[in-house]
From TrEMBL:
It is an enzyme of class 2 (transferase). The gene is dnaX. Transmembrane segments: none annotated. It comes from Candidatus Dojkabacteria bacterium CG_4_10_14_0_2_um_filter_Dojkabacteria_WS6_41_15. GO terms for cellular component: DNA polymerase III complex. SMART domains: AAA. SUPFAM superfamilies: P-loop containing nucleoside triphosphate hydrolases, post-AAA+ oligomerization domain-like. This is DNA polymerase III subunit gamma/tau. Belongs to the DnaX/STICHEL family. It comes from the Bacteria. Its EC number is 2.7.7.7.
Length: 412
């Protein structure tokens, strides 16, 4: 059975949710006929880069464009939808990284399109190309035949050479917010006659991490796993393998109330039940995040949680995030979470005094660094100002020294 994600892949720009800042510009280019020959789509995974590239490729070849939208009816559009359009070439740079692949592409590129007006090359994960392959691609991008359009996509733009970047029109895709992801899921659920209660949808959205693809895949997995098209919050939670909500709430409230014994006892319960510790930590972090942003949600769980300051919320979330990443390398999965809990609820003087001693030490270090830097500025300035022609150079010299000095202090 095809996945929900592939059957519900948008076929026109209007169906793309949350990326109107991009589709508006692409549609304008299409209807005015002012097109570039290379595009770079930047954004996290699951935000619709490839989908948009395919719609754009279809629109470039559609013979009856409607305000920049592909018509969906002409021979070209129909060939696209049947997956039989021959002038769309998709390359996954993660598995075709080398110069040979790009050379081959370059040779074939010279031939006229076999069906449509425009040959479109989509190179996904383009940052994976080798240095030599990038150089070959650069030459290709400099003067491609007029009937060729390149659409490069990447999740890691900092790995794409500046020379490639500067030859492309750049578009940045955004992660979906709660509103956009909920809209995406509810519209699919409506067509597929799937019913999930409001809290269940909220849970799916919060676990998708802003990725449209992940949100849809989660829904897909749960429907497939349960064989059920009417799902409650509890069923969604079980299917996601999430820990008992009562225990999550109990732990969260214990942290909010600074009740160390309850917090540790709840952890014990989690551990003895064999609950996945990483999953539990993630659920707790997400709940703190959601209740920090939505006071109403916090009030539903408990008053002590609702009155926490933003500073306390961020301290808790940061500490738990550290524990979450430490779990991967810990020889005992429970340890980072236990330590984080004790750190968040200092119950005696030793626990409180430890961090403050460190702070005092750090302060002293900082003052020393600044003192040294100041001495250096006063020493260097007169000498350099004689040599330096412009005022900016005199300023730049001490700044550089200060930076280097700081680095030394850290490594020492
Ligand atoms: Zn068409």
């Amino acid at each position: 059975m095809p996945s929900l994600y592939s059957t519900h892949r948008p076929k026109e720009f209007a169906q793309l949710i949350g990326q109107s800042h991009i589709t508006k510009l692409l549609k304008a280019e299409l209807s005015k006929g002012l097109l570039g020959h290379a595009y770079l789509f930047i954004g996290p995974r699951g935000t619709g880069k490839t989908t948009t590239a395919r719609i754009f490729a279809k629109a470039l070849n559609c013979t009856k464009l409607k305000n920049g939208e592909p018509c969906g009816e002409c021979d070209m559009c129909l060939a696209f939808e049947a997956g039989k359009f021959l002038d769309l070439i998709e390359i996954d740079a993660a598995s075709n990284r080398g110069i040979d692949e790009i050379r081959e592409l370059k040779e074939k590129m010279e031939y006229n399109p076999s069906m449509g007006k425009q040959k479109v090359y989509i190179i996904d994960e383009v940052h994976m190309l080798t240095k030599e392959a990038f150089n070959a691609l650069l030459k290709t991008l400099e003067e491609p035949p007029s009937f060729v359009t390149f659409i490069l996509a990447t999740t890691e733009p900092h790995k794409v050479p500046a020379t490639i970047m500067s030859r492309c029109e750049k578009y940045e895709f955004r992660l979906g917010g709660t509103k956009e992801l909920t809209l995406t899921l509810t519209s699919i659920m409506e067509t597929e006659k799937i019913k999930v209660d409001k809290k269940g949808v909220e849970l799916l959205v919060s676990h998708a991490g802003g990725s449209y693809r992940d949100a849809i895949s989660l829904l897909d997995t749960i429907v497939a796993a349960t064989g059920d098209t009417e799902l409650t919050f509890e069923e969604v939670r079980n299917a996601l393998g999430l820990p008992d909500i009562e225990l999550i709430h109990s732990y969260v409230m214990a942290i909010a109330e600074k009740n160390l014994s309850t917090a540790l006892a709840t952890l014990d319960e989690i551990f003895t039940r064999g609950t996945n510790t990483a999953q539990f930590t993630k659920s707790v972090i997400l709940l703190f995040r959601d209740t920090m942003l939505e006071k109403e949600k916090a009030e539903e769980i408990g008053q002590e949680l609702a009155v926490l300051s933003k500073a306390r919320f961020t301290e808790i979330i940061k500490t738990l995030l550290e524990a979450y990443s430490a779990q991967k390398y810990a020889f005992d999965q429970r340890l980072p979470l236990q330590l984080a809990t004790i750190h968040l609820i200092p119950d005696d003087d030793t626990a409180i005094s430890l961090p403050s001693v460190k702070k005092a030490e750090k302060k002293q270090n900082d003052t020393e660094v600044v003192k040294e830097a100041i001495t250096e500025i006063t020493v260097t300035e007169p000498t350099t100002s004689v040599v330096a022609e412009s005022a900016s150079e005199t300023v730049a010299t001490p700044k550089l020294k200060l930076k280097r000095k700081k680095k030394k202090a850290v490594t020492a």
